[in-house]
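Schema walk-through. Below, the input block comes first and the output block second. Nothing else is stored per chain. Lengths vary across the set, and this one has 208 residues.
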Amino acid sequence: MRLPPVAATALAAAIVAGISVLAFAWIPALLPWAAFIGWACYDQSGADPQAWLRSSAGLVFGVVMAGAVAIIVASNALPVAASVATAVCAAIASFLIVTGSAVLTQGAVAAAFYGFASTFAFVGLAPGASTIGAMTSLSASNALLVVPVSLLIGTLLGVLHGRLAKVLAASSEGGAHWRSIRLDGSALPRRDDRKAGPLRHTTKLHER
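--- output ---
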């Protein structure tokens, strides 16, 4: 049975979410909530191959910046109170995220902040994750390992969701040119369609 785009993307999201949460239950070291952030970040970035690269690079960049802040604070590298050190480092990191990600990942600043926030969420909430020992270990307590892996799995879930939604969507003459369907139900056209613009569709109308 073929479905309209909104129903298709909703059903695809339900299927991908259910299966991924079950899979994460078998691998407790990974973070399903971070994967959902990565999924949404991929969709927000455009839901195409270039968006996957931008969102993935931005997410990892944000994790690295947050890890640097956490390590500096945990090691007492600054001769001030921890709250002040955190504020100073976060301010510097935010400046670097905006300037750096705008250049390195072609504007994926939001993705970098998602990675930054996700890392601090883990460091602040997971027992013992804020220690130097945890952040330099090869274990599930290391935010610099589990957070980026979980986020990047989420971007792959976004790719899977778009393709599955396309399969479930109602077929139509225009639908044949869809690459995938985004979370809001909008179709992402193929690259050749986007280059052709409205002229391609006007030609089709005349052919009819």
